[in-house]
Amino acid sequence: MGRIIELIYNHRQSQPPTHSAERDLAFSSKTPPTEISYARPSLSSWALVLVGKEARKQIRYLTKNDPDDPTDTTQMRASTNGRNPTGSVAEWEKLTDNLSIPKIANKYAMRANVPWYLSEMMSAPTKGGAIVIRQRRPHTTIQVGAISSFVLSRNRYANGYLALPLAVWQFACKSHVDEKRVFSRFRFTVHDKTARACLDSLSAMSLAKLRASVAEGVAVGEM
After folding, report:
1. Radius of gyration of the chain (CA)
2. Which whole-number Å values give the CA distances from 2 to 6, 8, 37, 121, 161, in the listed order?
3. Which of 44, 62, 80 is the last residue of a domain?
């Protein structure tokens, strides 16, 4: 079937004449393929809409925790407020573990292969038709940043990939407040208020763990 579609698409009669209005309808997301007479623009329009719907669906998958990975923290709460007692709350180990571009890239490529492929085609340099991965500024980093912003745009609670860890990192680096706002507007990070709430929660948890450790040590006579 794939060979038949390829033959139809590449047939010289499938392309509209030079001055035909349908020549501008190739890869159109506005005009339904059923309203296009010539095969090539009709097929390209159909394929574009099909791929677009699948990409949107897979981005929606990325807004939710991976059902096949119990350690996944896609939706990671900055703090607990009682409204979602079963939600994953940020911890230092989770934040440092999640702030890994290779790990996020592998997760995206596995869970959302269509957005990953499309972003790779748009960002990766090629040589002789083969994709080249640069040592400095590899395109996979660009892909992770772009897809992460798409995910956070779809669901503000899906901040566990990059948005929350990066916001905490900005706080640690003492980034200017205007820089934080710009990153938040582009959906690269969560709002600074959320990052501060996360740090308050982390401090409280660290203090609670320290107190529990001291109490345990006293109980067994080590202190």
Report:
1. 24
2. 6, 10, 21, 21, 37
3. 62
Quote the pTM value. Answer: 0.79
Distances (CA, A) of 185 to 115, 163, 170, 194: 21, 11, 15, 14
State pLDDT tens for residues 147-193: 999 999 999 888 878 888 888 888 888 889 899 899 899 988 888 88
- Residue ranges making up the domain that contains 30: 1-62
Check pLDDT > 70 for residue 104: yes
**Are residues 46 and 123 part of one domain?**
no
Alpha helices by DSSP H, 63-191: 92-98, 101-111, 113-123, 139-154, 163-172, 177-185
Q: Domain ends where: 24, 39, 62?
A: 62
